[in-house]
Amino acid sequence: MNSSIEQENWFSEELHEECGVFGIYGDDSIAPAYACYNGLLALQHRGQESCGISVNDRGVISGHKNMGLVSEVFNNEILSTLTGQMAISHVRYSTAGGSVRENSQPLVMRYVKGTLAIAHNGNLTNAYEIRRELETRGAIFQTTIDSEAIAYLIARERIKASSVEEAVEKTMKQIEGAYSLLVMSPKKLIAARDPHGFRPLCMGKIGNSVVFASESCALAACGAEFVRNVEPGEIIVVSEKGVQSIKTNISAPEKKSLCVFEYIYFARTDSEIDGISVYESRKAAGRILAREFPVDADIVIGVPESGIDAAIGYSEESGIPYEKGIVKNGYIGRTFIKPTQKERASSVKLKLNPLSSVLKDKRVVVIDDSIVRGTTCDRIVRMLRNAGAKEVHLRISSPPFIWPCFYGTDIPSRDELIAVKHTIDEICTLTGADTLGFLPADKLGEMLGGKCSGFCDACFSGRYPTKIPEKMLSGKERGGVDFDKKLPPRHEAPKCVGKDES
Q1: Structural domain span for residue 306
Q2: Phi, psi torsion values for 90, nearest 5 degrees
Q3: In three state form, how does the secondary structure of 244-261 look?
Q4: Which residue is catalytic, options 19, 202, 377, 452?
């Protein structure tokens, strides 16, 4: 993006991303690039557009990054050249804009104090203001992502600060929104999480080596043992002196605002996020759906992958047998994160295939994780009917999306959300399902087992944990929806909405 672009275009054209970060502070006994490679493979579900690894060899930072999957960008020949004692890495997923190599991470910045590398998961809500202020002082940006503004601020603060961690803390006082950060200087590896805890970040160990990752599944992938989560508002510094925790004095809310959609969709099934099992939370969602929306059926199936766990929970609660009714082609990326509608639509046919022997003449309950634009669920219902299903009862393990996300998940503008334009029974008719039920928004806490000290459900409720700048609000509303209007009533579906019922 051109650095002189008008403010209106900055937010109307650029949607920001959900990503994954992985870092390691090791010694000569561990090859950090290979550890990052294994960690990124485990985090591939969080980003399939680009990836990168930056390594630190006794103060000299180098790296490799490119567009593509981890297995496409890296091979043994490349990894063998990335030697060092610590490294950070990143996977990014495609959005409606900014799909260029320059936006891939980690970002490496050389400045008067040396070199910094940064990997960032999340989205700043005051990115435009920060970027504009830096530009007026002569900064020239090479990317269109928030992470570069963070890197500039850290570099600027480091000139005056006594340490890199002090510069990170001062930067955290200036940035707002969601960020889980890994910062690598010539001598230190630093992890930081925003005061609200929007995005996950955890710490592990391999012997004497310290590892950070967006999800615990990535720790296991490189042989690391989970130690604990990085707390909201915390900075962890790893150096030759050991591990130091800094609890910043940044104003923090009483309750954290971890994105609840991590549990519903983004995170991998075998991860634990902030002490809560993703698998168990998805099963709990299925059990809730079975109680809230019972139906006489022969089998329960799940849409791979995140719908399967909820389907198991629905089956356990309802007593209806679980079957594998849809086979997924594991070599096709997620349809939700395809950059264009045409790509999302075409990938459904390539990605999913029904098992006719299981579905024929059956009354089927099918569990999916979400309906956003409504561009794939009708195809799934049609696919099941074409495979011989006698009835199709659609259950969704999340509430209806009625507000966009400003913290890093690619939930689009309100005029693109099907639940804004249509009632639940209208959506049921549009999908072609016999009945439809969404997870009630007031059951999200129950889905998490009552163990979560706070979560963000703004995309379902419109209750944003932070102030959203006016230009950012209007930028998300390409259809001109007025954010100043009173919040609509919560979308609550009746017990069982049939397409011929009202």
Answers
A1: 269-498
A2: -160, 140
A3: EEEECCCCCCCCCCEECH
A4: 19
Mean pLDDT of 25-48: 93
**Burial code of 365-384, b = ≥16 C-beta within 10 A, e = fewer?**
bbbbbbbbebbbbbbbbebb
Residue 212 sits in the same domain as residue 325:
no
Phi, psi for 45 (deg, rounded to 5)? -65, -20
Active site residue 19: yes
User: Are 93 and 18 within 8 A, CB to CB?
Assistant: yes
Characterize the bridge pairing of strands 180-184 and 114-121. Answer: antiparallel
pLDDT of residue 160 exceeding 90, the answer is yes
Residue 64 burial by Cβ neighbours in a 10 Å radius (0-12, 13-18, 19+): middle
| 80 belongs to a structural domain | yes
368, containing H or E segment: strand 363-368
pTM value surpassing 0.90? no
Domain harbouring 370, CATH code: 3.40.50.2020
Crossing angle of helices 341-351 and 377-386, in 10° steps, is 30
Amino acid, single-letter form, for residue 249: N
Cα–Cα dist 413/398, whole Å: 18
